[in-house]
Amino acid sequence: MSEFRDWYNGVPFFTRYWMTFTIVLSLFGKFGLVSPYYFILDFYYFFNQFQIWRPLTALFYYPINPGTGFHFLINCYFLYNYSQRLETGMFAGKPADYFYMLLFNWVCCVIIGLLVKLPVLMDPMVLSVLYVWCQLNKDVIVSFGFGTRFKAMYLPWVLLAFNLVISGGGIMELLGILIGHLAFFLLFKYPQEFGGPALLTPPAFLKQLFPDTRYVGGFGTAPQARVPTRPGNTVFGGHNWGRGQTLGGN
């Protein structure tokens, strides 16, 4: 038990509670402790009955049954693995920034969910976080099923194709990719490559609630701002943490 407690307490803060609430609410619905109907996102009850908890519970709840149990476990693995890597990598020491990105992705999921009548939001939310990590670690080699290895930048699309072929789905994955791409663009590409303002900078009260901490290390690198150089000059400096093994390259 002490080993489990040590492992659990070692999981980064936001990843830990996101995973915990997901497992707890899903099991509550599975065993009938609370009717799953009170967890899902429903336009009518949210706006007309003011059941304002539904967007939050729809994020954490996932219906577990013989047909969805394996998919739920895969989602939990992706949640734990890639949220943890982001939280201790690119967002290491900046909990408010990571929380603000999660908040942005969640709001996008809720808006789309209300528009297209998605009852649960776990799939697009997890895929959006996975997509951001993959964009920050494009050349890292990942493994997927039967030892297949490829660059991380292709992983979200492989998952989309896999679910399209296996279950006839893919819509949830596509929504997660679109939300993740929007978050990545606003966080990194727009301010760094296009010179725009940092639109996803957390407000001051979040910085006070989750103050920055000192952290050495990281996993993944943000896109580099374009630096004009004269011919023959080389720009040195900067670290490239967490790139992992790469394919090819000249």
UniProtKB/TrEMBL annotation:
Major subcellular location class: endoplasmic reticulum
Spans through the membrane: 21-40, 60-80, 100-122, 154-187
Topology versus the membrane: Multi-pass membrane protein
Intracellular or extracellular location(s): Endoplasmic reticulum membrane
Domain of life assignment: Eukaryota
Alphabetized UniProt keyword annotations: Endoplasmic reticulum, Membrane, Transmembrane, Transmembrane helix
Gene Ontology cellular component terms for the protein in this record: endoplasmic reticulum membrane
Gene Ontology BP annotations: response to stress
Keyword Disulfide bond recorded: no
Cytoplasm recorded as keyword: no
Function: May be involved in the degradation of misfolded endoplasmic reticulum (ER) luminal proteins.
Family: Belongs to the derlin family.
UniProt protein name: Derlin
Lineage, opening ranks: Eukaryota, Metazoa, Ecdysozoa, Arthropoda, Hexapoda
